[in-house]
Amino acid sequence: MAIENTMDVILHPVRMRIIQSLINQQITAQQLKELLPDIPQASLYRHIKKLVEAEVIHIVDEIPNRGTVEKVYSIHDPNKAVISPEELNKLSKDEHMGLFIKFMANLMGDYERYLNQGKIDLVGDGVSFRQTSLFLSNEEFAEFRRDLIAVYTKVTENKPQKGRRRRTLATIIIPDREKEQ
Question: What number is the average pLDDT over the span 44-60?
Fold first, then answer.
């Protein structure tokens, strides 16, 4: 599959939500429907099919159920659900901007779904968005990234369970233009 097609598959807002729902778990289409009730069933199945065809998600089991077979989906290789550095380096400025716009649209969709859920408690739910500027040498920045990765790694392997709530965390790092010294 071409690079652009793979990225389009992954970055579609509905498919991104399916991918996020499958992180660290194996679930059926029916369970996905329960997790994503605002997506019409026919649309959900169409997007699951596209992700399977792109080999982003896989069928890991088939369970007989009242004369039909219920498929269980998973992300075998989480690296298939991300865009590699090599793929990113091949993109034009316009393609990078398109990716960034899709990324931001996905975040805005998540936030809108949160706000539309009825009663919300921004403080109690831990909702926040922040921007800050950091002045770091290349070495300090490399250390900062390593520290962030260590913090993320501690919690990204958590499996869904009672008492745990999925939270979306997005980090955007944009360096300032380099100034001649």
Answer: 91
